[in-house]
Task: structure prediction
Amino acid sequence: MPIEGEYEPSALQWVADQVAAYEASGGAEANTLRDTGIPVIIVTMRGASSGKVRKIALMRVEHEGSYALVASYAGRPSHPAWYANLRADPHVMIQDGPEPHDYVVREVTGDERAEWWQRAVAVFPTYAEYETSAAEHDRVIPVLVAEPT
Result:
């Protein structure tokens, strides 16, 4: 089911620009994290407080049709704002190419988290550094898995 309503672009201009370029090109452009060459997906969700449609680009960590959404926030002491959005409403759309599809998100723990974490670090090795930094603040980086509906 599409996520409809008023869209509020990210306050970070480069994120808003990337989302716009990705969507306008059907995923042919702006499909990597800046100049790293590492593929990204676009995740559409509903804002927990505002109720507005929000969109972000996240690392493309895919396995058998499901995606890991890693709430690393570069290892900062707190979780990214979008994590609260997904906790409040787990229904998202993910665009990995020309068009978005519906998914439901759930947070994973234990062995399942460890498996997804390994996949994420294989895609973006810097996650390992973020994990160390987050641990210094007594924070465990949440890993959520988006599965097709």
